[in-house]
């Protein structure tokens, strides 16, 4: 078949003050009509620049140095800017990552879509508006006719992304490039958007390039996958084949680093050592060689040519996985998986899993409530309502255990974390840590109490003061708490850096000199400085790439074992939470809807929301992804200012009944004593309820 | 064979050094700051110009000694190039070059002192106001708004009518009307910074509010503060000129660049260009130079641009 898009030896550079970044460096790729090509890679792999090169929307200083981009027989590289304008939108549509910033906040969405229509077709304004309405309906905007005059801020992230897709489709392009279209969205909304893109692809018979860092998204949606590393495609092939039989060591390592694949065990995750190469001066040989466990002299000396199989599965490697050299040390072998520190071996593992000692509850959260006042007026701030962020949440955590708090954005999980460390004051309810009520966190005694709990943040860029050196950052808690002399504090800083695996030379460096993963290590060192008993980790790995995420998770688990730490681990990523947690709590709109042992919650969810969440998470395994019998969570998260009566999930619940609107369900245990659920019709325990819904629908 | 990364895998000799904050390393930080500043040619030229101008104003009178106290009506409005008067003389018979020196002195002194005072007060008020928010912020900012609403000239007239203009009172008067803008700017910055994770981290460690403001909010607002301070110097020199123009400046025989400009205006139809051009050019050059320096400083304090 003739490809719709063929990219030959594309080189794109981004000029800097000194030198230039070779963001895309000799890339070949083909996209066939009507297919979805997944482009996957970590940050800095050049996948976004690839998309922008096709559209020629490169950032300032960026230019295509060499190569050809042939779309439908026309080389885009040679086109003038004027001709290129015609290609954009008409031949190629583009959906950006962040729907919050890619729409104009001062124009109604209908006009923004109509504008895109009028740019490509000679139609009257009213015809364009009619077409805009059609497009909105096509992208599944609920009540499209009423929404057409809404402004972007009146829409949720998921709906805004639908508007972006409508704009991209305005001129019926043959190719749609979606650059991380769902990264900024929650999993249940992600599922809806991906489904929409898939459906539109079939209806409009266009090709889609789906650019993402998430192997799971690719597994479920792409026909073929291209894996990018350091500006080049290292492996490309049919999705099922590539996932089941990865040939490039990078692909293999990437798959092995996913917590999903080690979820049931608390085994150390496979990590890729080191960092991607500096693309201002890329190595001559294979770019993955310095991090590759199969690498030989040959790999460093020259770049491997692309080898292929008849099925179109191609890869650039001298020692592909599955050949005799590769078989010598498969990732799955025990020798490879063994945790690096012998003391953190199997014995600890069993101790950790042993039945908990009920008397050693470290953290007790009891009927916790947090309402934020909603005020209006600039000078006299009148209270006009209350946002119910956390509504009656209770759970306990024993020393040395991890409690995983899961939920979508806006469910109150971060607020719960902030309440625990005392950054917010609860409206009602108590939090007891090591026998002390945190409500008494005032003055000097309060400051001492704070040593017991520390917070670890999501964004490794925002959580470290850019104007303080690493030494000053890690020393800050000691300085605030006036622990020891300055000299003792400095010694402790070095100990801590050693413990989190950073060199002693880091002390006088500044945060911007470190990568995301290293910064997160600094954050961990700071959190551990005061020897806390409890660390509340708020999405500690969500900003990191898969391979780096694995390093940080391993470190966290390792430190937990050594210091008998307890974690409250907050994340939207169920795979990660399952890997690290002993107990999981699922939150929805301020309520804890399900609490139970990690494996239990994951394998036998009782609450329909937990099931929906689990089903919406894309698994990096095409076979399992396809086999999923999905319970789809529809619609959007209701407002927390006016939460639904009764069960808060009922507006999106596929099995909701009348009783759900009237009665607030309480946490109870329908089966195992430790597995609690707040649902009138827990899954698998009220078969007649499900049957009734099926019958009525 | 490559070993999987483990905590502590990065190479270091294991022996933990006693202390790390040795003096030479602290010094390197400042070398880095100066290094980035020096890359900005315009800022470097501006700094050199200001140094030369300051030398001219403060050392110049020792070299080119003139009588700037007694008027001498016999040598009024001499042309530049007259014997002993390179830039001629003004309407009172003062040597223009010498006048430029003492006028420049006053302008620099008052301008820099007023800007520093205004920046200090404005930055602290703004940082605390923004950090605490709520009622305190509301009250402080409404006061600032109220004062900003009074026309500057009216405020100047009122203040100058109450106090006798000396260098000290002028510094206070100019600072009193300049700190408002700084306070607003820094408050805006503080409102944004207080939501940052590292501020939350400091609070969760038990940091007191003053400490958080002084260690996190103010240093991170530094670029805004520094850039604004340079504008403040330029503005203060202009405000001083305005005051002098209204006859509320320093009493003769003291003067400043604005005062000289005003004196020159009296003779503008006589073609005495040498009374207007030198102070006029000096004012423009100083204002522009301070702005370029502000740019350079902003870059220099941006830690990310420092390379070691």
TrEMBL record, chain A:
<comment type="similarity">
    <text>Belongs to the ABC transporter superfamily.</text>
</comment>
<dbReference type="GO" id="GO:0055085">
    <property type="term" value="P:transmembrane transport"/>
</dbReference>
<dbReference type="InterPro" id="IPR003593">
    <property type="entry name" value="AAA+_ATPase"/>
</dbReference>
<feature type="domain" description="ABC transporter">
    <location>
        <begin position="369"/>
        <end position="614"/>
    </location>
</feature>
<keyword id="KW-0067">ATP-binding</keyword>
<dbReference type="Pfam" id="PF00005">
    <property type="entry name" value="ABC_tran"/>
</dbReference>
<dbReference type="InterPro" id="IPR003439">
    <property type="entry name" value="ABC_transporter-like_ATP-bd"/>
</dbReference>
<dbReference type="GO" id="GO:0015833">
    <property type="term" value="P:peptide transport"/>
</dbReference>
<dbReference type="GO" id="GO:0005524">
    <property type="term" value="F:ATP binding"/>
</dbReference>
<feature type="compositionally biased region" description="Basic and acidic residues">
    <location>
        <begin position="340"/>
        <end position="359"/>
    </location>
</feature>
<feature type="region of interest" description="Disordered">
    <location>
        <begin position="336"/>
        <end position="359"/>
    </location>
</feature>
<feature type="domain" description="ABC transporter">
    <location>
        <begin position="5"/>
        <end position="255"/>
    </location>
</feature>
<dbReference type="GO" id="GO:0016887">
    <property type="term" value="F:ATP hydrolysis activity"/>
</dbReference>
<keyword id="KW-0813">Transport</keyword>
<keyword id="KW-0547">Nucleotide-binding</keyword>
<dbReference type="InterPro" id="IPR050319">
    <property type="entry name" value="ABC_transp_ATP-bind"/>
</dbReference>
<dbReference type="InterPro" id="IPR013563">
    <property type="entry name" value="Oligopep_ABC_C"/>
</dbReference>
<dbReference type="Pfam" id="PF08352">
    <property type="entry name" value="oligo_HPY"/>
</dbReference>
<dbReference type="InterPro" id="IPR027417">
    <property type="entry name" value="P-loop_NTPase"/>
</dbReference>
<dbReference type="InterPro" id="IPR017871">
    <property type="entry name" value="ABC_transporter-like_CS"/>
</dbReference>
<protein>
    <submittedName>
        <fullName>ABC transporter ATP-binding protein</fullName>
    </submittedName>
</protein>
């Amino acid at each position: 078949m003739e490809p719709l898009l063929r990219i030959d030896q594309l080189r794109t550079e981004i000029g800097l003050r000194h030198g230039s970044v070779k963001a895309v460096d000799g890339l070949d790729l083909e996209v066939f009509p009507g297919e979805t090509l997944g482009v996957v890679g970590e940050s800095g792999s050049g996948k976004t620049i690839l998309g922008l090169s096709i559209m020629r929307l490169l950032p300032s200083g960026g230019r295509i140095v060499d190569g050809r981009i042939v779309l439908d027989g026309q080389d885009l590289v040679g086109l003038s800017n004027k001709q290129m304008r015609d290609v954009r939108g008409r031949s190629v549509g583009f959906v950006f990552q962040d729907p919050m910033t890619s729409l104009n906040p001062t124009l109604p969405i209908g006009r923004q879509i109509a504008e895109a229509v009028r740019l490509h077709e000679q139609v009257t304004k009213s015809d364009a508006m009619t077409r805009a309405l059609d497009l909105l309906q096509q992208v599944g905007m609920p009540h499209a006719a009423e929404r057409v005059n809404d402004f972007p801020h009146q829409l949720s992230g998921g709906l805004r992304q639908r508007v972006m897709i409508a704009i991209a489709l305005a001129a019926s392009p043959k190719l749609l490039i979606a650059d991380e279209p769902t990264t900024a969205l929650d999993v249940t909304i992600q599922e809806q958007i991906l489904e929409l893109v898939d459906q539109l692809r079939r209806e409009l018979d266009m090709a889609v390039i789906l650019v993402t860092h998430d192997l799971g998204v690719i597994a479920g949606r792409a026909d073929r996958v291209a894996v990018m590393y350091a500006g080049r495609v290292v492996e490309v092939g049919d999705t099922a084949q590539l996932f089941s039989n990865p040939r490039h060591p990078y692909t293999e390592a990437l798959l092995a680093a996913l917590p999903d694949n080690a979820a049931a065990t608390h085994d150390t995750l496979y990590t890729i050592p080191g960092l991607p190469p500096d693309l201002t001066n890329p190595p001559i040989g294979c770019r993955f060689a310095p991090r590759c466990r199969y690498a030989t002299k040959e790999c460093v000396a020259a770049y491997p040519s692309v080898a292929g199989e008849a099925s179109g599965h191609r890869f650039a490697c001298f020692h592909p996985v599955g050949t005799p050299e590769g078989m010598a040390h498969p990732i799955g072998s025990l020798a490879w998986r063994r945790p690096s520190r012998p003391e953190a071996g199997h014995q600890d593992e069993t101790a950790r899993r042993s039945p908990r000692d009920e008397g050693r509850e470290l953290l007790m959260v009891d009927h916790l409530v947090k309402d934020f006042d909603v005020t209006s007026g600039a000078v006299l701030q009148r209270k006009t309502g209350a946002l119910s962020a956390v509504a009656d949440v209770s759970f306990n955590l024993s020393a040395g255990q991890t409690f995983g708090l899961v939920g979508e954005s806006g469910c109150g999980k971060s607020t719960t974390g902030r309440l625990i460390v005392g950054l917010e004051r609860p409206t009602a309810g108590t939090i007891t840590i090591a026998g002390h009520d945190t409500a008494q966190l005032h003055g000097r005694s309060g400051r001492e109490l704070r040593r017991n709990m520390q917070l670890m943040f999501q964004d490794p860029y925002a959580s470290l003061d850019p104007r303080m050196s690493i030494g000053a950052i890690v020393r800050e808690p000691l300085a605030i708490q006036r622990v020891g002399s300055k000299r003792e504090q400095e010694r402790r800083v070095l100990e801590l850096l050693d413990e989190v695996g950073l060199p002693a030379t880091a002390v006088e460096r500044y945060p911007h000199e470190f990568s995301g993963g290293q910064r997160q290590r600094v954050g961990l060192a700071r959190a551990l400085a005061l020897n806390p008993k409890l660390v509340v980790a708020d999405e500690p790995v969500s900003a990191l790439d898969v391979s780096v995420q694995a390093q940080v998770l391993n470190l966290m688990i390792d430190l937990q074992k050594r210091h008998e730490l307890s974690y409250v681990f907050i994340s939207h990523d169920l795979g990660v939470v399952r890997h690290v947690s002993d107990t999981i709590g699922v939150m929805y709109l301020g309520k804890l809807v399900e609490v139970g042992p990690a494996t239990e919650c994951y394998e036998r969810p009782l609450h329909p929301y937990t099931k929906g969440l689990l089903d919406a998470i894309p698994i990096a395994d095409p076979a399992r992804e396809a086999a999923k019998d999905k319970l789809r969570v529809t619609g959007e998260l209701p407002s927390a200012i006016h939460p639904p009566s009764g069960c808060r999930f009922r507006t999106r619940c596929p099995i909701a009944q009348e009783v759900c609107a009237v009665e607030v369900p309480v946490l109870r245990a329908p089966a195992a004593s430790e597995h609690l659920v707040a649902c009138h019709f827990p899954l698998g325990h009220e078969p007649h309820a499900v049957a009734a819904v099926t019958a009525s629908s | 064979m490559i070993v999987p990364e483990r905590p502590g895998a990065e190479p270091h000799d294991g022996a933990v050094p006693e202390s790390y904050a040795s003096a030479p390393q602290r010094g390197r930080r400042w070398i880095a700051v100066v290094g980035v500043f020096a890359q900005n040619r315009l800022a470097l030229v501006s700094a050199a110009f200001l140094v030369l101008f300051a030398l001219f104003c403060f050392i110049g009178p020792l070299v080119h000694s003139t009588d700037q106290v007694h008027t001498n009506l016999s040598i009024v409005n001499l042309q530049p190039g007259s014997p002993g008067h390179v830039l001629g003389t003004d309407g009172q018979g003062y040597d223009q070059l010498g006048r430029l020196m003492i006028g420049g002195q006053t302008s620099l002194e008052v301008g820099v002192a007023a800007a520093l005072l205004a920046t200090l007060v404005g930055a602290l008020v703004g940082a605390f106001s923004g950090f605490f928010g709520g009622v305190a912020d509301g009250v402080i900012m409404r006061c600032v708004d109220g004062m900003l609403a009074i026309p500057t000239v009216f405020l100047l007239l009122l203040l100058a009518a109450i106090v006798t203009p000396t260098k000290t009172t002028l510094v206070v008067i100019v600072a009193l009307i300049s700190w408002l803008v700084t306070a607003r700017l820094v408050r805006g910055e503080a409102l944004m910074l207080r939501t940052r994770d590292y501020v939350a981290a400091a609070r969760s460690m038990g940091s007191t509010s003053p400490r958080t403001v002084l260690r996190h909010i103010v240093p991170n607002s530094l670029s805004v503060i520094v850039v604004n301070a340079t504008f403040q110097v330029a503005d203060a020199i202009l405000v001083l000129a305005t005051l002098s123009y209204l006859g509320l400046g320093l009493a003769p025989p003291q003067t400043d660049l604005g005062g000289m400009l005003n004196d020159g205006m009296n003779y503008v139809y006589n073609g005495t260009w040498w009374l207007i051009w030198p102070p006029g050019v000096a004012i423009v050059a100083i204002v522009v130079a301070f702005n370029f320096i502000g740019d350079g400083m902003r870059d220099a304090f941006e830690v990310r641009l420092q390379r070691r």
